[in-house]
Design brief:
Elements (H helix, E strand, L loop, with lengths): L5 H27 L3 E5 L9 E5 L4 E7 L5 E5 L5 H7 L23 E4 L18 E2 L5 H5 L6 H13 L17 H10 E2 L1
């Protein structure tokens, strides 16, 4: 084997070190970043047969109510309520989508309830003696009709819901300032997620 000159050894060594650094950087980027996978399934058929999901920062949401395929779906972090509705096949004809904030960001574990129109065009959020009010569709005026909720607190609830992409449970309202234990009891009796 021919002997290498000193300058050749330095060049080959520099190339080896550069390749090791590039390889290490690629491995670190793969571990630290999101890895994307393309899945093909019947559930993804509504989005053209394929869906892209990231395993690093996904959110899992329960989409229910007036949608084609209610169920639990995994979506990329940063997805919006409208993305979850579309993943569930879209809203059905009798949906009252104007009752929810479709632009709100999704939170992990959130339930997205797409209300149906009731008799006379009212959505699920309509206040009535027949059942609880939907947190996803209730207006500030509807919330004010609950014992212990005034205009300021009702506004804070709607603002909190819009900022957090909805509410996964009535218990989340405990994080809204102005809601104490007595008000929480009234809310549990009159609201549903």
């Amino acid at each position: 084997m021919p002997e290498l000159s000193r300058s050749q050894v330095v060049v080959y060594g520099a190339i080896a070190v550069a390749l090791l650094l590039v390889g290490a950087r690629a491995i670190r980027a793969e571990e630290g970043g999101r890895s994307f996978a393309v899945e093909s399934s019947a559930e993804a058929a509504g989005s053209g047969g394929f869906s892209i999901s990231s395993s690093g920062g996904d959110v899992v949401v329960d989409v229910t109510g007036a949608v084609q395929r209610p169920g639990v779906y995994r979506l990329p972090a940063g997805a919006r309520v409208i993305d979850a509705i579309e993943r569930a096949g879209g809203a059905v004809g009798g949906a009252a989508v104007e009752g929810i904030n479709r632009a709100a960001r999704l939170a992990d574990g959130q339930q997205v309830v797409v209300p149906e129109r009731g008799v006379g065009g009212a959505g699920l959020g309509a206040v009535g003696e027949e059942g609880p009010i939907s947190l996803g569709a209730a207006t500030a005026e509807q919330l004010e009709e609950i014992d212990g909720i005034g205009p300021v607190t009702a506004g804070k609830i709607v603002e909190y819901r819009d900022q957090h992409g909805g509410l996964a449970s009535v218990e989340q309202l405990d994080e809204v300032s102005g809601i104490g234990p007595a008000t929480m009891e009234s809310l549990r009796a009159r609201l549903q997620p």
